[in-house]
Amino acid sequence: MQIDFISSLHETTSRDYIGRMNIEKPKIAKIAKKFDYNFWDGNRKYGYGGFYYDGRWKPTAEKLIKYYNLKDYDRVLDIGCGKGYLLYEIQKLNNKIEVQGIDISNYAIENSKEEIKSRLRVGNAIDLPYENEDFDLVISLNTLHNLYIFNLEKAINEIERTKKENSYIVVEAYRTEEEKFNLMCWNLTGECYFTDREWEWLYSKFNYTGDYSFIHFK
């Protein structure tokens, strides 16, 4: 089911799409895809330009807890957790919810929130080191579009394997030619550039049974 917990965080962001689409972009993308200091905290042209905690993930955490009725001792996994800010907000709201995060970036895990760093680990979405039906909620926000399509299927299968029932995926997508242009200009690490309808078709083909939403670059 399509349900949105996150787009408001992106719609208020000002982006220079044209500025990022330049002759140097292929070289910049190669650096960004290392997901190291440059991507997270280096120059803006390589990624976030400084990925710091500012509390913006609290409303998303509140919505997830309420919608999925998360309670004491429920387990939540965040695939592509970055520095763990969303998981930190979930823990602040209910420190009895058990959170786990996994990310391909050594740098992100090493520079994650100290309060939950012990709950995070380096790993790959296509081969999760967890048991079947290990989590009450599995989430992946702004991560899976960075995979090649054959690994995207593996990652979705891993989400289905490790969740008991609930999951929530967010990817970047487009609905119009203008949004497609903006997405292609802005995204440095993506491998899957699809419309909403194509994503939904893929979810059906890959037997994904959870919830999802999209980020659009207007």
Count of DSSP-assigned helices: 10
CATH topology: Rossmann fold
End-to-end distance: 23 Å
Structural class label: alpha/beta
In CATH's first tier, which class applies?
Alpha Beta
User: What composes the largest sheet?
Assistant: 6 strands, parallel
What is the overall pLDDT average? Answer: 94
User: How many domains make up the 3D coordinates?
Assistant: 1
Biggest β-sheet: strands ordered side by side in the sheet: 3-2-1-4-5-6
Number of strands: 6
Per DSSP, what share of the residues sits in E-state strands of 2 or more residues?
Answer: 15-25%
The ordered string of helix (H) and strand (E) elements is HHHHHEHEHEEHEHHE
Radius of gyration using CA atoms only: 17 Å
| Share in helix | 25-40%
Low-confidence stretches: none
- Overall form: globular
CATH superfamily descriptor: Vaccinia Virus protein VP39
What's the CATH architecture?
3-Layer(aba) Sandwich
Characterise this structure:
The chain has 218 residues and is of the alpha/beta class. It has a single domain, classed as Rossmann fold (3-Layer(aba) Sandwich). Helices cover 37% and strands 17% of the residues. It is built from 10 helices and 6 strands. Strands 3-2-1-4-5-6 form a 6-stranded parallel sheet. The longest helix has 14 residues, at 149-162.
Write the layout of secondary structure elements.
Blueprint (H helix, E strand, L loop, with lengths): L6 H5 L5 H4 L4 H8 L4 H5 L16 H10 L7 E5 L5 H9 L4 E6 L2 H5 L9 E3 L12 E7 L7 H14 E11 L3 H10 L9 H10 L5 E6 L2
Parallel strand pairs: 1-2, 1-4, 2-3, 4-5, 5-6
